[in-house]
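Table 4 source record.
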Amino acid sequence: MSYDLALNGKEVAHPEDAEPHQPAYGGLGPPTLPRYRTPPRAVCVLAAKAGAERFTEVTWRQGSKGTMTSRFAVLTVRPAGKQSLAAAQEAGGGRNRWDGVLPVQTLLV
């Protein structure tokens, strides 16, 4: 199981339902790669857009100073940063064989 810990709010991703499209090939140079129609957004923007109703209060410990609680939301996103893009292309058989679909990841906010 792979995971990231303590993401920076500036990390970018697409929503889970985003799908790439294949632009028409103009005939010159290498074929165009599939791409998403909208630019990726910062994960902090995606979390804010999810809305307060997506967050659940969780108590995880009883301590000497009271209970420790926080609010969390689980979001499913398609990470779109440079490293995520490179890893998706490598997993898809290389840049020219990749289908353009970024993998879905679960994000705990």
